[in-house]
Each structure stands twice: as C-alpha cells, then as structure tokens.
C-alpha cells in the first residue's frame, strides 16, 4: 500500500468578503470550480416557497456578457460538466473543466454574480417557471412516495419555521414568482460576502488566486441581511399521519429533530444511522429484511442542516406485512439503541464504512470541492475535510446510546406512512 | 442593454465581453494497465491507480440474462444474486459481516451480457477481497431458504415497479421492441416464471454458464498488477474451464410504422415518455461516430432535443437520448418526463429532430462542440478507482481491443458532418419507432393517435381493449 499525503488546502479572503479555498491536486488534468451561496429555502417566506430554487434556474439563463443558453454551451463545448442545486441552507453552482479552462469557469461565475440582472426577462422567467413545475411533477407529484418527505418536514417543523416547507416549493408559489422577486433576492443574497468559492484540481495556487482576484475583486459586497434563528420548542409527539398514494407497497418515513450539523450529537446520530442500517450486516437490515422479512428495504440518515439537524428512517413493507407491524419493529430497534450500548464491533463496522465513504468522496474533485465549500460556509474551516474523521473516531458506544435516548424518542417523532390507495395507479381489476 | 445603477463596473484589466482564451489541453491518456491471460479461460485486467488507498476488484462471469432459459426468465439475475448469499464455508450474513467490518462492500449482479461479483474496500484488505471473490464464485451453495427469500423479494420488487412511472415506461418499451426475446422482459424476470426459479434451476444455470470459460478479473486502485496476477492465478487454478454456451440471439420485433403504447395512470401528474427502436450492438464499427451523433442529438444539456423540449418549449425538466451498451442490438431511446397536455407536441418535436439530423449534416461548429465535449469529459469519468475498473470491464465484456480508449480519441477527431448525417440515417428509425407514454390515457390518446395505432395498457400489464 502507498502512503497518501494530506491534501494541500489554502484559504483566502478578498476585500469584498469572498472566501476562496484552493486545493491544488495535479493527479488529473481537471479543475473543479464550486461556488456556495449561503442562501436556500430557509431564507424564503410563506407564499414564496421554492423561490431559491427557481432563482437557481435563472442563473443558467445568461448574464450581461453570457447569452441565454450559453452557460452550458461554453462549458460543454470544452468538455466540462456543470450544474447547480438548492437545499435548505444553501445554493451551489459548480463545473468541472479541463484544467486549462479554469479561467472560463471564473469568467462565467463572476459574470452571473456581478451582472445577472441586466439579462433577466419576463420570458425567461416564464419558461423556467414551466420547467420547474415539471421538475416538481417529476420529482414529487408523479413519484411514488414523492409527497412523503414534504409532509414529514411539515410535521417535524412548526408552521413558520423555515424547514417547514419543501425546498422545491409549493406549486402555487412557483407560479406566483415575479421578476421583482428575482431582483430583490439577487441583491440581498447573491453577493461575494455571502459566498465561498472553492477550486480543486490541476493549477498553481498563486496563479489561480490571481485569476480569482481578476474576475471577482470588483464585485461590491452586499447588505449582509439578518439571519434570524427562529426558536424551536420541543416537538410534542408522537405525531403521525397516513397518506394514501398510487403505490403497491406501504412505506414508513420516521423522523426526529437533531441538534445542528457540527454538534457532537449530530456526529453521534450520523454514526448511529450507519450502525443501525449501513450495509447488509447492520442490525436493522439483518432483522427486518433478512430474518423476519417484514421489510423490502430499510435505510436511515442524518441531514447536515444548519438551524436544526434531522434524523430520518425509511422502511418499505413487504406486501403481506401491515405497516403497523413494521413500524413497531422499527421503533423497538430505536428504543433498544437508547436503552443499551451497541457492541464495539458494530461501531467499528460503522467507522470503517465512514472512512471508506470519505475516500470515495475525496476521489471526485467536484464532491471534494463541494465539501470544502460546505465546511467553510458552516464552520469557516476547510481543514475539517480531514479532521472531521476525528469526530467519528472518538465517539463511543455510550455516546451513541445517549444520543439515541435523547433525540430518537417516540414522543419526539414524526411519522408519515404511505399506504396503497384503493384505486392504486389505476390497477386493473 | 445597459446595466442598472448599482451594478459593478468592470475593471479595465478584464475583458468580460468574450470568453477567455485557454492554453492547449494538458495531455491525458487512459491509465496503463496489465492485460494477461492467466489461465485458460481467465483473463486479468489490472490498473495501478493511485488516487486513494482504495482498491476495486470485480470478477466477470461470461453469461447474463440473454442466456435465461425459456420459461425461466430472470434466472441469470437470480443466480447472480445468490452467489453471495452463501458458500460451502459461510452463510450470506457471515460473508456480509466479514466484508462490511472492513468497511467494504460486496455485490453480485447480472446484466443482459454477463454476471459480476464486485468488492470495493481499503487497499490494505485487497488479499482478503480476492479470496472472497474466489470463494463466492467457486463454491456458492445456493441455500434453499435464501432462494425462497429472494424470490419473495423479487415479487415485491415487481409490484413496486408497477407504481413507478419510469420503470413502467422502460418495461413497456422493452416489450414493444423485443417481445418474445431476451430484452423483452425485465431482467429480474416476470411474476409467472418466479415459481420456476428454484434452487435446482440456479445451481444448474451456475454449472452451465458461470465458470472460468471466458471469465475476467478486473482490478483497479492502490495495487501491484504483477503481484496480483500471481495471487489470482493461485486462487482460480482449480476452477473448471469449459467454454460457456452461446446464448440465443436477440430477435427484435419488426415494425412497419410507429406504434404507440399508453400505460394508463388516470391520476398521474405528468407523463413519462419514451421513444425508441432497436439499435446497433456496443461493438458496432460505427460506434464512435454514433457517440458523436448522439451527443449532438440528445447526449448532453445543450443537445438539440433538450434545448427544444426544455429551453424552447418548457415541456419538460429534461430530455435526453442514448444508445444501450449491450452485446446485442439494445435500444436507442429518447427519454423525458413531460407535461401530459404537451405529450403529442413533444413527440412531434422529437421525431422532427431525428428526421432533421438524418437529412442535414450539422454545422461544423456544432460537430466540433460535440467532439470536444466527448474528449474533454473523458477524464472526468475516470476519477475513481471504481470508474477505471468499470472502463476495463467494458473492454472485457464487449471484446474491445486494449488500445480502444487511445484510438477513441483519434477516431473522435476524424468524424465529419456528413458522417454524422450518414450514421443518423443508418441507425435512427423515427418512422418505425415505438412511442411509450405512461400517464392519463384520456388526455394522451387524443394527442397520440395521429402518430400510429394506439394500444392502452394497465400498469399491471393487461391490454385495455375498451379504450
């Protein structure tokens, strides 16, 4: 086996507040350009849900010096790959390019950070409204179980809390977005001091930094809007609901709030998710899928979100199994996790899985750059990319038990069970 | 248009009006690898790829779903699934526990062409991973309770697919193009045949089709190819090396015109649309110009079909086209989830794009974009040890030459606009394609009747004669 040196990571900040992370790595002739804006669906208001995401679409519609469909054209014609995505806390934009086209990525990203509004038109907004409504249909309304997560968030977080509504937004809100909304949102949030730019790949750091300065230095900082942290009382539960949908198999979605991403208990919950259901030898898979055969599949995960984390567990019932039976079996596992410690060998399995996944993610420049942007946005420290592993390594069986007993209690749970509707999918008699 | 006040002023030093010039691309070649016949019927492809302390190994067994016996559709897939569910020494859970404790994962699957046992883990555990592959491939025990459990799981999976619009569309397209032949049913089989898939059938299929005759071991990652070759030779020396039997040919349905298939989901919020026809096999000599043609037509965001359906009309969140990677004549297909009321218009626009490319060669600039895209994106698809293993596996399964990926770059550059038109004319068949739409039949049928005869199906697969 060969030794793998620590990644080289540099941090800089431009006068306008733009944070820049450089991770030179010449293994492949590629460069990943990744830009996080610290704005997501949490910064929307009721009646305008889904706007952060619709706005992300508008950023691919050209800017002062870039024509309507030219963003993707410029990138794909040199063999690059690009996209963007919106989530609760952030919106990211990224492209991986042949390394000699780094400057192209900086030109494109700086043009839409600085000169977006002159290119906005009502026609572009209308087309993207249609595209996004189709995206919502494709991802949510026309997907089996597609509305379950949306309902789960509504139950888990109270009305008025920014995690209460879905990132993609409600259909009527998407339809209501106006050009004035676009302008206001842009001026408030799309500013260099609300962004992190990460470059990972084959470049010389000093040259790359000079290029970044050249393209971003003259974009003025923004108004630094307030970021209220809405208070969150404990969930008085258990809350549970049934949805009937055009599905053949029932599915349980069970969720709990967690402390924010970055806290000790968040890492404990994340490791606990892997202990519980990561792999075919995990206790949940082995008991529910393999031995008792109550479930077709089972999985759990912790979401790394800023205002509050959440832990979700999803299990699909076998056709002949009543969803209540599956739910009781799942809850029993969670009670046990809070009542007695897991064997060290189970925790070692989970730690090794986290380590393997860490290396799998690092091999992909775009994923690596995205993680760096995330760690700087939330914690101001790109070196956590490697040091975060320590947080998992030092967790003990007692930590995981305490975490389960504190956060994964029945009375703090929200559940959505999707059951087959009588007229499921228009099934023939 | 002038910038509104408050917009920043470009510094004199930067010319923002045009994209910056770039230096010539850095050199890139497919990673060097060792390809050697280790034993009669067993080849090794091994690449030393130092991107992480990881290794990925995969054993390719020479047959897959195309070799399913008649009346036992899905047998290849079930047999592969069973390989890691128990060996002469260890039970399935013991195997999983052992590999997962090392942070690794073990999988056993089949596609139409071959079966695969794969393991990815930290490179320090590579010797154990190889021994594990050998144990699973050489001494599977097909335990009866596991056969029963997996059969029930498949039944549930087939039920689950009935509520997935995309799965329904794929399955209906397969049936429309290949009914009565492999590719014409789901790889995991059909409800009616599941009863035939028992322990004896799996064990017989294993004896018949999954042995060293034509097997390949693929390895990539932080490893020494020569040392690996020695280890693998020892591990597999005792395996019988008969030649695997030749699978039956794929027989596509012959079509005289466009056939429309609607799968009725009356309450659906949207329609899953597919338009396709049988295409050339993966190792067809036209493959490189075909890749260029597809990239231009529907292989990327700025392709004609996506720009038309998404950016011009807003019918869909995204549309793309692809040629299947199979040894036989797998499907060419265009896929999109469209607003139901726009389905007929989306079909007309798609057919128009196919016909236009058959009639007019693309502008040289559009061709150059497509070629540069395929060239530039290639290293991006080779970032992980697993993705390098996947490329080596393509060489083995499709019988491609060792210098295939080097020649690929040369051949890409030689494609001309007229050649793109010519391969479109040769390999696209808009006028004898199948159109599949999964959505509300009451809305869809009136829009689709003009393209050809319409058959309406229920999600569970019955033909709705009343429609």
What is shown here, in short?
The complex is a heterodimer of chains A (429) and B (467). Chain A contains 15 helices and eleven strands. Chain A has 429 residues and is an alpha+beta fold.
Verbal overview:
The complex is a heterodimer of chains A (429) and B (467). In chain A, 42% of the residues lie in helices and 19% in strands. Chain A is of the alpha+beta class. Chain A has 2 domains: 10-216, Cytochrome Bc1 Complex, Chain A, domain 1, CATH 3.30.830; 239-422, Metalloenzyme, LuxS/M16 peptidase-like (Cytochrome Bc1 Complex, Chain A, domain 1), CATH 3.30.830.10. In chain A, strand 9 (295-303) and strand 10 form a beta hairpin. Chain A is globular. The N and C termini of chain A lie far apart (61 Å). Chain B is α+β, with helices and mostly antiparallel strands. Chain B folds into 2 domains: 34-236, Metalloenzyme, LuxS/M16 peptidase-like (Cytochrome Bc1 Complex, Chain A, domain 1); 259-457, Metalloenzyme, LuxS/M16 peptidase-like (Cytochrome Bc1 Complex, Chain A, domain 1, 2-Layer Sandwich), CATH 3.30.830. Helix content of chain B is 39%, strand content 18%. Chain B has 15 helices and 12 strands. In chain B, the strands form 2 sheets. Chain B has a 6-stranded mixed beta sheet, sandwiched between helices. In chain B, strand 9 and strand 10 (331-338) form a beta hairpin. In chain B, helix 8 (287-299) packs across helix 11. The model of chain B is unreliable at 1-11 (pLDDT under 50). Classes of the chains: A alpha+beta (429), B alpha+beta (467).
């Amino acid at each position: 086996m060969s030794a793998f040196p620590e990644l080289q990571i540099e941090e800089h900040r431009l006068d306008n507040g733009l944070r820049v992370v450089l991770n030179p790595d010449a293994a492949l002739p590629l460069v990943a350009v990744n830009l996080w804006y610290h704005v997501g669906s949490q910064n929307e208001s009721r009646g305008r849900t889904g706007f952060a995401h619709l706005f992300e679409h508008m950023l691919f519609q050209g800017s002062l010096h870039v024509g309507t469909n030219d963003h993707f054209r410029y990138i794909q014609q040199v063999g690059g790959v690009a996209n963007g995505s919106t989530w609760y806390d952030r919106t990211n934009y990224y492209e991986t390019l042949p390394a000699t086209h780094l400057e192209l990525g900086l030109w494109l990203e700086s043009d839409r950070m600085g000169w977006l509004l002159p290119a906005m038109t009502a026609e572009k907004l209308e087309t993207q409204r249609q595209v996004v409504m189709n995206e919502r249909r494709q991802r949510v309304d026309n997907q089996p179980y597609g509305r379950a997560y949306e309902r789960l968030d509504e139950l888990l977080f109270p009305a008025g809390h920014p995690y209460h509504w879905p990132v993609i937004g409600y259909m009527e809100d998407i339809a209501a977005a106006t050009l004035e909304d676009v302008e206001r949102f842009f001026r408030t949030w799309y500013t260099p001091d609300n962004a992190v730019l990460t470059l990972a790949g084959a470049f010389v750091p000093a040259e790359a930094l000079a290029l970044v300065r050249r393209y971003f230095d003259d974009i003025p900082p923004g108004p630094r809007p307030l970021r209220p942290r809405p208070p969150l009382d404990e969930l008085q539960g258990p809350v549970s609901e049934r949805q009937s949908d055009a599905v053949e198999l029932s599915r349980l979605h069970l969720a709990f709030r967690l402390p924010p991403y970055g806290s000790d208990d968040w890492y404990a919950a994340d490791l606990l998710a892997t202990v519980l259901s990561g792999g075919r030898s995990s206790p949940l898979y082995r008991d529910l899928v393999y031995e008792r055969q109550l479930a077709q599949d089972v999985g759990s995960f912790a979401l790394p979100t800023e205002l509050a984390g959440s832990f979700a567990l999803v299990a699909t019932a076998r056709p002949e199994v009543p969803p209540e039976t599956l739910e009781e079996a799942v809850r029993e596992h969670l009670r046990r996790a809070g009542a007695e410690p897991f064997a060290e060998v189970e925790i070692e399995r989970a730690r090794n899985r986290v380590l393997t996944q860490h290396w799998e993610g690092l091999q992909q420049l775009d994923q690596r750059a995205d993680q760096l942007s995330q760690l700087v946005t939330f914690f101001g420290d790109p070196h956590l990319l490697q040091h975060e592993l320590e947080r998992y390594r030092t967790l003990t069986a007692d930590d995981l038990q305490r975490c389960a007993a504190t956060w994964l209690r029945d009375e703090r749970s929200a559940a959505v069970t999707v059951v087959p509707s009588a007229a499921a999918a228009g099934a023939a008699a | 248009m002038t910038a509104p006040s408050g917009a920043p002023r470009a510094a004199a030093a930067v010319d923002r009006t045009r994209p910056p010039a770039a230096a010539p691309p850095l050199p890139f070649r497919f990673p060097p690898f060792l390809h050697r016949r280790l034993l009669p019927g067993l080849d090794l492809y091994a690449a030393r790829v130092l991107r992480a302390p990881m290794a990925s190994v995969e054993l390719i067994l020479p047959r897959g779903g195309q070799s399913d016996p008649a009346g036992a559709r899905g047998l290849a897939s079930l047999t592969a699934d069973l390989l890691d569910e128990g060996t002469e020494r260890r039970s399935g859970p013991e195997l999983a526990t052992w590999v997962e404790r090392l942070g690794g994962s073990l999988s056993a699957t089949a596609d139409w062409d071959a079966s695969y046992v794969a393991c990815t883990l930290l490179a320090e555990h590579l010797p154990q991973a190889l021994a594990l592959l050998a144990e699973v491939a050489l001494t599977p025990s097909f335990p009866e309770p596991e056969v029963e459990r997996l059969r029930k799981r498949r039944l549930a999976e087939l039920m689950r697919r009935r509520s997935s619009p995309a799965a329904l569309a794929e399955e209906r397209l397969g049936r429309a193009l290949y009914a009565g032949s492999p590719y014409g049913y789901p790889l995991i089989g059909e409800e009616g045949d599941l009863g035939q898939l028992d322990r004896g059938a799996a064990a017989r299929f294993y004896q018949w089709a999954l042995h060293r005759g034509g097997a390949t071991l693929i390895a990539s990652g932080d490893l020494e190819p020569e040392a690996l070759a020695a280890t693998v030779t020892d591990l597999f020396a005792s395996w019988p090396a008969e030649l695997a039997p030749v699978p039956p040919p794929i027989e596509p349905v012959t079509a005289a015109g466009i056939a429309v298939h609607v799968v009725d989901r009356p309450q659906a919020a949207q329609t899953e649309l597919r338009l396709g026809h049988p295409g050339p096999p993966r190792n067809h000599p036209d493959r490189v110009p075909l890749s260029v043609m597809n990239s231009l037509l529907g292989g990327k965001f700025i392709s004609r079909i996506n720009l038309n359906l998404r950016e011009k009309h807003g019918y869909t969140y995204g549309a793309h086209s692809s040629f299947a990677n199979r040894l036989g004549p797998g499907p060419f297909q265009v896929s999109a989830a469209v607003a139901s009321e726009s389905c007929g218009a989306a079909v007309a626009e798609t057919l128009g794009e196919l016909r236009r490319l058959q009639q007019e060669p693309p502008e040289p600039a559009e061709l150059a974009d497509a070629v540069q895209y395929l060239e530039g994106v290639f290293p991006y698809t080779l970032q992980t040890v697993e993705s390098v293993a996947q490329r080596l596996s393509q060489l083995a399964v499709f019988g491609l030459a060792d210098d295939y990926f080097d020649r690929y770059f040369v051949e890409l550059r030689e494609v001309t606009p007229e050649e793109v038109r010519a391969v479109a004319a040769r390999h696209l068949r808009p006028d004898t394609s199948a159109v599949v739409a999964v959505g509300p039949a009451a809305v869809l049928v009136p829009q689709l009747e003009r393209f050809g005869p319409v058959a309406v199906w229920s999600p569970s697969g019955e033909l709705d004669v009343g429609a």
